[in-house]
Amino acid sequence: MNRIVLGLEYDGTAYAGWQFQAGKPTVQNRLQQALTIIADQPLTVQCAGRTDAGVHALEQVVHFDCTVQRPLDAWLMGGNSHLPDDIRILWVKPAIADFHARYSAIARFYRYVILNRRMKSALLRSQATWCHDPLDAERMQRAAQHLLGEHDFSSFRAQSCQSVSPNRFMHVIDVYRQDDKIIIDICANAFLHHMVRNIVGVLMAIGTGKRPESWTQDLLQIKDRSQAAMTAPPHGLHLAGVFYPHHYGLPVHPLSFKLPPDAKRYD
Fold first, then answer.
1. Which domain covers residue 63, as residue numbers?
2. Residue 52 designated active-site
């Protein structure tokens, strides 16, 4: 059995999320269909982190097992030839040893984009969340730093979250302005369901001055999702990268410079 690893980018606008759902368009389903044609046998792919409906990926990492030998370029070029324009395979590598797209990951990196101006955008309507109220990025950045380190993120998880533990280790959270956009970069060992979008909702309330900077710290102590802000929309969210130990030999993502060298593995 051969295990193949690939990096994938996609625009999630037209999909009901990553995970296969009968009768609905999903990224997993389209990718499996394309790779099955190349392999000439049914394939099932495993991803590093599932994304919800409307969420995008700058780099999703996926692996699959098959019994046939194909040149790596056949998976890359052949796979892309059978994929729609909103899904693209970026690179392909043979897996090393015990590699698993999900369980071998050290950390996940998400980027949330907010268009902060008076008028909506015709071009970014599916790639960024629009907020017409002025946002104070520096205020949001100061509030976000309370979330660094290991915490119980119960106030930031979806009510339907099925994770056994609400504890996660936040490596990086940076909020900064680029012209008329607010960018929020978030890196943790793993994320609870809707965790990033719930954090963004809280930071937006703080950025508009509706809540104090200390609210993030208060919510960590309260551990009650009902006391937090609304969940931010999905279309501003991008899975920006997945990080693995160096010995797996996978491409180094451009955002990896933000990952601390003492990042803890999540099991």
1. 2-104
2. yes
